[in-house]
Amino acid sequence: MNKNISIHNISFDDCLLLYSWVNNEDSIKNKLTTSKKVLLNEHTKWFKDRIDDPNTFIWIIKDNFNNKIGQIRFQMSQDGFYDIDIYIIKTARRSGIASKAIKMAQVQANVYPLRAIIKKYNHKSYAYFISNGFQLISEDKKLWQLVLDLT
To answer: Of 9, 32, 63, 120, which residue is most buried, by most CB within 10 angstroms?
Structure first.
């Protein structure tokens, strides 16, 4: 897949697309807060809250044919980190798109530190974030926490 991508701020028109992605089996198994499908009314409320939150940044990732192939989110946590969430459709994975999208989002948002919280069985995500400059700051039996701080 061509790595020529762009990122665009989400709009309410993207609500159903993100709803379908969050309920994909490969997305559900890696979620931190739920292990079951999200109901549409819950997702719609969450989506509206995120759009209205000045400390949340969400972009749609598009390929060079203008196809929507993923999303990336930076969301301020209560402890001062911007937690990162990224989803790339299966056919676009392992092509460098996620790394490029994170770099583009960092430039647009200019917020730090970024934190990735990863379930311990998800070795691919752990390796991905380490290879993109994140450093392990803590771990417990279930989770790794990795941070990227360029301030």
So the answer is: 63
Report the topology of domain 6-111. Aminopeptidase (3.40.630)
* Residue of 51, 53, 60 whose CA lies nearest to 108: 60
Sequence spans of domains, the chain: 6-111
Order across the sheet with 114-119: list the strands: 6-9, 56-62, 68-76, 82-88, 114-119, 143-148, 135-139
- Tokens at 12, concatenated: 């309410």
Q: Using CA atoms in the order 147, 113, 140, 18, what is the torsion angle rounded to 10 degrees? A: -90
Q: Which contiguous run of DSSP H or E holds residue 62?
A: strand 56-62
Per-residue exposure over 76-111, b if at least 16 CB sit within 10 Å of its own CB, e if not: eeeeebbbbbbbbbeebbebebbbbbbebbbeeeeb
Residues 6+ apart with CB under 8 A from 10: 18, 51, 58, 59, 60, 71
